[in-house]
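Re: [help] complex structure
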Amino acid sequence: MDLPGQVNCETCRIRSCAVEVLDQQELDILKTNCAGAVYARNERIFQQGSLTSNIAYVKTGLVKIHKNGPSKDQILKLVKPPRFIGIPTVLGDRINNYSATALLPTTVCFIVTSTFKTLIMRNGRFANEVINSICQDELTFYDRSINQMQKQIHGRLADALLFLADEIFEADSFDLPLSQSDLGDYIHATRESVTRTLGRLKADGLIQVKGKNIKLTEKDMLRKISKLG
Amino acid sequence: MDLPGQVNCETCRIRSCAVEVLDQQELDILKTNCAGAVYARNERIFQQGSLTSNIAYVKTGLVKIHKNGPSKDQILKLVKPPRFIGIPTVLGDRINNYSATALLPTTVCFIVTSTFKTLIMRNGRFANEVINSICQDELTFYDRSINQMQKQIHGRLADALLFLADEIFEADSFDLPLSQSDLGDYIHATRESVTRTLGRLKADGLIQVKGKNIKLTEKDMLRKISKLG
DNA sequence: ACAGAACTATGATCTATATCACAAAAGACG
DNA sequence: CGTCTTTTGTGATATAGATCATAGTTCTGT
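Output below.
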């Protein structure tokens, strides 16, 4: 983790919708209670179970949110910046309920939790934007959960690939930012099943694979697979 | 649905933490934009896909939040009052992203969405309480998701029974508020599997079943099953 | 009280995907 | 450059739980 330290929220070009609505005085409060950090691929941003007094704002890169389950670690979601993560630590206990790890080189701003709370209390529009953002996340996660539960592995993998292409990279060709084992944790499958299913999609000509690079050549077909489960 | 209509938020004894922090003027705003309703068992409170301009506050009873998946309806969570439901409709589109159905006779207050938003904007403490509540829900749902995914059916059923006993009824003996088919939608299993697994728990002497009534006689053992999956 | 619907019970079979076992390939690093 | 670790590929086997089929039971409305 590299620490650029001091940041300037006023001139920051990757501000969240929430920060957009702050006034000058509030930006000053934020600025003096905010520190930047840079993470390399696979570096842990925060760890489940650890005490914290910060909320993280992911500015660039890609982050996985993951949590220990009864039998293994599971990736709850992939977070594309810009996005706040770890907001639930505003709750009393201040213990991270999940881990966050960079999947690509990632820049993060840490905001002191009490400052975040102060801004919520002071500025209703800020609070409103935060609520919107959490609600959006909530709905997305509901959908993802249902899909994970009800689709079988082909559909879940197709979903993941389409998500990476459409939402994360906005390109039909991209380098997989996760190992197949991670991908398994994300779509709830074993590494072996991921390998086999990827192989199947490749054999059927729906995707091209060159090392880490994946190219979705038949997105319509992938979407159909995603639909049918 | 029976409509008591006019409610008085000032004297309401089942106020949320959020409403607790409102001042007199805000309570007046709330009161004039709030209507009560009573639902019978299995009555729909709101329907996924329908347009709405209200947020619901469940005062008493028990509610299931459920949503259509690719292959079937799934119960996302059981909501024990008091609790707001449907907050995500504060997002632009105002379309319910899931359904809510009463599992027991249930009383609900509907709050006009714009009023809810006004209160968030006006009163930072209200906003803060709302955020706390959503965050709490979020964490609970993460845990539930991971458990659903990683545990097998015995563990999932044990979880559900312990949840009903400990969180909902606060008693080791209770009448199942869901059919076995619903229970299947809740723990992601078929009705047949629920029947068999319940039968198994009964045969093993961990629970007693008399019609709809269930009595957890070996909670420690159930907890062990829940842990081991 | 009775007919129709909804719910519960249980056995027989099938299947998607986990597990296990091993090997090859690709990265990491002294 | 070679060793060590991590990642990927692939077959053989096992299994939890779905699906199918059939009946009995309880609820609901008239």
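The domain at 151-228 of chain B is CATH 1.10.10.10 (Arc Repressor Mutant, subunit A).
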